[in-house]
């Protein structure tokens, strides 16, 4: 497993993007924790993600994008949903929306919804943009263990690691914009709660 030199230049981003294009998997930094990326259109790469994480295949996996345009290619976004999204993304919030047929079923077993993450981290969005495809957004940990905030804490195997230093941020808040509920409390929880009530004209928001 190769590791970057943490020089924050374009070399690491390009190398990671090339690996994704070839069907490999990459561990990358975000503003919350380290994540593991695979081309969502490569079934073989997706199966590797489940394997290295020791994750059951019946659990959904979110998707990371590098632009709103890339997001629009994956999910249906109404006027209210777009107002909410543009308020919080890019940033540490995962939004759940109705997927389009472009999203593989392996990522969303038993549901037509998918979580979308647009990280506010230049290394993350940089390599996704160069790869030209959305990637998986799931923490780079063995299922059931704590997600890694530093490279030294990573236990799962990958073809390359982008060393982004300490990523000890608060986990993202996960919000279901279809059923209008918060699935997981995390970063910007209070702001997310207020925005849901305001934008969708709700008296209260369910919290799972």
From TrEMBL:
Domain of life: Archaea
Main location as per UniProt: cytoplasm
Reactions catalysed according to its record: L-threonine + hydrogencarbonate + ATP = L-threonylcarbamoyladenylate + diphosphate + H2O
GO cellular component: cytoplasm
UniProt-listed InterPro entries: DHBP_synth_RibB-like_a/b_dom, Sua5-like_dom, TC-AMP_synthase_SUA5
Keywords for this protein: ATP-binding, Cytoplasm, Nucleotide-binding, Nucleotidyltransferase, Transferase, tRNA processing
Cell compartment(s), UniProt: Cytoplasm
Gene Ontology MF term list: ATP binding; double-stranded RNA binding; L-threonylcarbamoyladenylate synthase; tRNA binding
Keyword Transmembrane carried by entry: no
GO terms for biological process, alphabetical: regulation of translational fidelity; tRNA processing
EC numbers, comma separated: 2.7.7.87
Family: Belongs to the SUA5 family.
Protein name as annotated: L-threonylcarbamoyladenylate synthase
Organism: Candidatus Methanoperedens nitratireducens
């Amino acid at each position: 497993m190769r590791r970057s030199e943490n020089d924050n230049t374009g070399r690491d981003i390009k190398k990671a993007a090339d690996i994704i294009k070839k069907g490999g998997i990459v561990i990358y930094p975000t503003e919350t924790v380290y994540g593991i990326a695979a081309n969502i259109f490569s079934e073989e790469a997706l199966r590797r993600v489940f394997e290295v994480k020791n994750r059951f295949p019946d659990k959904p996996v979110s998707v990371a994008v590098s632009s709103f345009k890339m997001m629009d290619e994956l999910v249906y976004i109404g006027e209210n949903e777009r107002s909410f999204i543009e308020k919080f993304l890019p940033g540490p919030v995962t939004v759940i929306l109705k997927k389009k047929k472009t999203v593989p079923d392996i990522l969303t077993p038993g549901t037509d919804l998918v979580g979308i993450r647009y990280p506010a981290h230049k290394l993350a969005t940089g390599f996704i943009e160069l790869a030209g495809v959305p990637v998986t957004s799931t923490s780079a940990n063995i299922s059931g263990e704590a997600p890694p905030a530093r490279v030294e804490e990573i236990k799962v195997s990958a073809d390359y690691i982008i060393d982004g230093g300490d990523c000890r941020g608060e986990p993202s808040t996960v919000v279901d914009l279809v059923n209008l509920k918060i699935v997981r409390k995390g970063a910007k929880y209070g702001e997310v709660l207020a925005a849901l009530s305001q934008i969708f004209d709700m008296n209260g928001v369910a919290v799972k």
